[in-house]
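TA notes. Do not distribute before section.
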Amino acid sequence: MTRPRSWWPDALFVGAFVLLTLLLWQGHLLGVDLAVADWSAAHRPPVAYWTARVLNSLGQGGWFLMPIGAALTALAVWRRRTIRPVLIFVATVALLYLTVGPMKIVFDRAAPAFIGPDREVLFNPAATGSLGMSYPSGHVANTVLWYAAFALLLGMLLGEVNHRLLLALRVLPPVIVICTTTYLGWHWITDSIAGLFIGLVLARILTRVPWDSIKPPSVRRASPASPATKS
């Protein structure tokens, strides 16, 4: 993968997230969120619902993305005899937990499924628990960052990966997760857009690091024990 050289896209994504947050805080775009959520709730037959549920698994961090990341990390460590893949895995988890998690707590926005007052506004004291941690979308941020990590790990594992495959890996899962998580009513559409902005910034941070230049200890295979010499 080509490491990002310019910082202006990062600044653009951060600025877009700040602007979106300010607009929502001032009450703008809330009508759009409600309209999209209401349309989705009215057009959710069982077949479409379960199809979206399955596809949305592409953005599930705990039981889907992290195990895949751990497996790719282990394979890359075994193949390349270096712990660099472990550093990528740890950095991915740390970036998510140090940014998206605290943001959800600070902005305290309810999900569309919340039954209570002012469900669509930010800083809603009535929005507590898991249904009060909707902004930004962790599903979308997870997807953008983890699939960037997968691309890095595949590069270490295979040495060279087709650029079209990398592009598909970086683009298709986030698009699918944005559509499905909004359609299922798990997040407002602006939650998903905010998660996309945050995920893009985190992914650029991850891919900006010159992982191949880091000099960690090598991992060596244990050599088979030689047979004991008879006396």
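Switch to the second chain here.
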Amino acid sequence: MRILIAAAGSRGDVAPYTGLGAALRRAGHDVALAAPDTFAPLAHRAGLEFRGLPARPRAEGDVADRRALMRSAATFVTELGRGFATVPVHDAELLVLSPTTAPLGWHLAEATGTPTIGAYPQPTAPTGDFPPVVTGTRSLGRLGNRAAGRFALRMTDRLYGGAVTELRRALGLPELSPAAARRRQEAAGWPVLHGFSETLVPRPADWRPGLEVVGTWWPYVDPAERLPGDLEDFLAAGERPVFIGFGSMAGGHGERLSELAVQALKRSGLRGVLQAGSAGLAAGGDDVVTVGEVPHALLFPRVAAVVHHAGAGTSAAALRAGAPAVPVPVAADQPFWAARLAALGAATEPIPFRELTVERLADALGRATRDHTHVRAAAGAARRMAAEDAAGRAVAAVERLVS
């Protein structure tokens, strides 16, 4: 079967689909990944065909300015919609859509008659169990959580309004609003596979049939890949270090965060691995090393704790490795995942990004690395996640859909 996976956003929004795509390819399918051109190397390393979308990865902007973030998101969606009008799908027998691409991919599928399935790394359907993942962690009660979930979907509809109108015109389709398209998919029981672990988020009992939780999809890592030699030397030279990184977040805060991290490590008597990321973290010395992009799957099992922005993928990777976390959520769904890790006992209480100080980070590092409660909770979660076969379940679901 010829399968086209469409994903867009930051690296964390795209990388998990390389692992899913590789699993589909091993099952005998021809798989292509459509994503912004920046991510072509990720696709090629996983052995996937690549089809570029002319849209920049979403800029995170000033983390304290929500209006700026919304403007950035609106610009990104507009570019993405224009890219979808040119995506070659004539040879695809199935479109696999991410949360970012689904509101556009449905219209492309309508124009071409191609079947679709959702592949979502976070829960988006309303539920009484918890509020929308993008609005924070405060529960509003079951009725309130569901109402807030529906409101969050309407806000997404508004964000995609202009892009959908433009895309449908380009495809020669009659007018249809994003809300109407979404309701049509829901009424048809559109299938969505959710790529997160029930160790973190059990499937809500009030979800409709067709919404399945299969476990986490991991970014593809070549079996022959190894950590860089200088990083291996650093790991071997002393006690397990702490990993500190903020992924694609915190751009423009690199100097402050680097100094803060170094001082907190000194206070807590720990060594550290800083990942540069979009923030541009950088420091050196006997007890600190700076790295670029390295596979979390190879590094996290060898660290004492992980300080991170609580993105869905990084949160799951730390948990999979059995590494206690110090979550420092920045925006979007990150407070949700941070709270989930803390509720499991596998992380310290989250430190909101704007409240991060040397003192708070040093204290949290001490608790994460020396409180055996956190260590045991993380190890227990890792054992449960090791029993999951997310890629295998996704492949089986895809094959059932088109059989």
